[in-house]
Amino acid sequence: MINLQNIEKVYRTSTIETLALNNINLHIRTGEFVSIMGPSGCGKSTLLNLMGLLDAPSAGRVEIGGETVTQYRDKELARLRNQKIGFIFQSFHLINDLSVLDNVEIPLLYRKGDASGPSRRQLAREALEKVGLSNRMNHFPNQLSGGQKQRVAIARAIVGQPSIILADEPTGNLDSAMGNEIMSILQQLNADGATIVMVTHDETMAKKTHRLVRLFDGAMVGDSVLMSNA
């Protein structure tokens, strides 16, 4: 599903060069739930951004769903992101002036020739039902708790029925109870067929996934199977 081969990522300025990722080789199979851990600044979010086609490697090859995307143009990358990848962020990134339902519908607005307005609304409602927020669809983000905001963010990520979900610290801003609820939703989405990659600092959350990849100073230093996804 996701294949990274000999990946390097270098950030350069006029005075300094920083090696963010160094010779990363990682294959994530369809249906896996993989967590990525490591200290701050070790390259976790950079790696997730490469998987999500939000950034390009300085060297190496990226394959998503069997497509080699390293040489794709921006328009082709945007198409692939919109069709196959859902993003969940630690800080939710909801638009406060839009209702919950409108926030969830946003990704569908960028799909050319796809669902009509009424169909988009129905897909957004169904996504909110999956995360248990059908009774909050007409509320606004500032009327929700942190856990509810993250559920909205998950609904927005899954409304287009992506095969891949990338989550960057999805429980990082939540207390343990709310964090466990969010993890339960992610586990159910995985059980329903989604391939999930999650960056986390929480060892307890990581142990609820199939596999744990550890980074240090931009390099992979561990890759452990925690449970089978067969």
UniProtKB/TrEMBL annotation:
<keyword id="KW-0813">Transport</keyword>
<keyword id="KW-1278">Translocase</keyword>
<dbReference type="InterPro" id="IPR003593">
    <property type="entry name" value="AAA+_ATPase"/>
</dbReference>
<dbReference type="InterPro" id="IPR027417">
    <property type="entry name" value="P-loop_NTPase"/>
</dbReference>
<keyword id="KW-0547">Nucleotide-binding</keyword>
<dbReference type="GO" id="GO:0016887">
    <property type="term" value="F:ATP hydrolysis activity"/>
</dbReference>
<protein>
    <submittedName>
        <fullName>ATP-binding cassette domain-containing protein</fullName>
    </submittedName>
</protein>
<dbReference type="InterPro" id="IPR017911">
    <property type="entry name" value="MacB-like_ATP-bd"/>
</dbReference>
<feature type="domain" description="ABC transporter">
    <location>
        <begin position="2"/>
        <end position="230"/>
    </location>
</feature>
<comment type="similarity">
    <text>Belongs to the ABC transporter superfamily. Macrolide exporter (TC 3.A.1.122) family.</text>
</comment>
<dbReference type="GO" id="GO:0005524">
    <property type="term" value="F:ATP binding"/>
</dbReference>
<dbReference type="GO" id="GO:0022857">
    <property type="term" value="F:transmembrane transporter activity"/>
</dbReference>
<dbReference type="InterPro" id="IPR017871">
    <property type="entry name" value="ABC_transporter-like_CS"/>
</dbReference>
<dbReference type="Pfam" id="PF00005">
    <property type="entry name" value="ABC_tran"/>
</dbReference>
<dbReference type="GO" id="GO:0098796">
    <property type="term" value="C:membrane protein complex"/>
</dbReference>
<dbReference type="InterPro" id="IPR003439">
    <property type="entry name" value="ABC_transporter-like_ATP-bd"/>
</dbReference>
<keyword id="KW-0067">ATP-binding</keyword>
